[in-house]
């Protein structure tokens, strides 16, 4: 028990060091037993973590938003953000909008958010040294009166000449601002170079031979050294807490399993809570869609039931037929399947360019031995077997005719190409057309 308390205390330190409000470990214990005293702190914590996920930090704007928004607005915002991130717990969606109850469900939602969004890992990724090379924090920026921007007339109310003048004015102002920005950047570079040149051969970093701007600033203002030491100690504590959490987080998740078991036990004892009046309160589902969804569910259920009976009937037929089927019947079925597959492949066009040139009879046939089957004559003299299977003698004869036809076509094309080459060679003087040598086969 003391171990889980220390782990939760460590989690509260990690959360607090990354900008959340101060929450006590006792609130987690109370939430496990669904105590209402832990409801508001958990709503506040989940709100801040969602804000961190959206904007990368917990700043004054988040604090002001929590104080200025109403309780109902905060609850609805958190519910919709959790739903958008994939947390579709009905019990969480049915929590009251006045933060009056539901601490255990909030604790489970917090655990889901920590795991799903990898909040602690994001804390680690955003770790940065508080001593950054930014001199702006060491200077007192004087309050400069910024002139109010010029009110531009709506462009739809201007004539073409005024629109062109307005665009020219905006272009000139933009160019002037860019020149000013460029001049400031050049001045900053000159000053930085001057500092580096003045501190040449003096350095506390072996990788550099000069002092940095921060080091020069602390030499000029010794009181900043104590302040920066405090920042470093605070940041070191934050990093140490993150490392300790990675070592002890398994204890927290095992404790969260006990929280889920307590919820399931409570449901078993008291029965699931129902709130028919609020079933669609915080869900992005129009109320009139419930009837449509129910009708679609009934249609799907009817279709599944219908095809389920058909599948059962086919299974029964297969069980009966399997006992009387012979090898011959199987060969016939396989031959029919092979024929159908070859036809479908030809229809799909998988033959490529060769299929457009060669006849379809060049598709490789499949042969099977079919004994003692009657033959039927056709008008072409070929013997057709049952189910469109040809006799092998007829198949050989047709292939031989196809080979003779192709040979005749090749001879004709060969003579034509020879004549073309002869005609072409006559157009060039002092040339001789030598036919290629025949290849040995």
The end-to-end span amounts to 90 Å
Helix content: 55-70%
Q: Classify the secondary structure makeup into a structural class.
A: mainly alpha
User: Biggest sheet, strands in spatial order?
Assistant: 1-2
| Low-confidence runs of at least 5 consecutive residues | 133-147, 274-282, 350-362, 375-384
Mean pLDDT: 78
Order of helices and strands: HHHHHHHHHHHHHHEEH
Number of strands: 2
Quick summary of this structure?
With 441 residues, the protein is mainly α.
Write structural notes for this entry:
- This protein has helices at about 1-15, 25-30, 40-55, 60-70, 70-85, 90-95, 105-115, 120-125, 160-200, 215-220, 225-270, 290-320, 325-350, 355, 390-425, and strands spanning about 375, 385.
- It is mainly α and about 450 residues long.
- The protein has a two-stranded antiparallel ribbon with strand order 1-2.
- β1 and β2 form a beta hairpin.
- The radius of gyration is 42 Å and the shape is extended.
- The model is unreliable at about 135-145, about 275-280, about 350-360 and about 375-385 (pLDDT under 50).
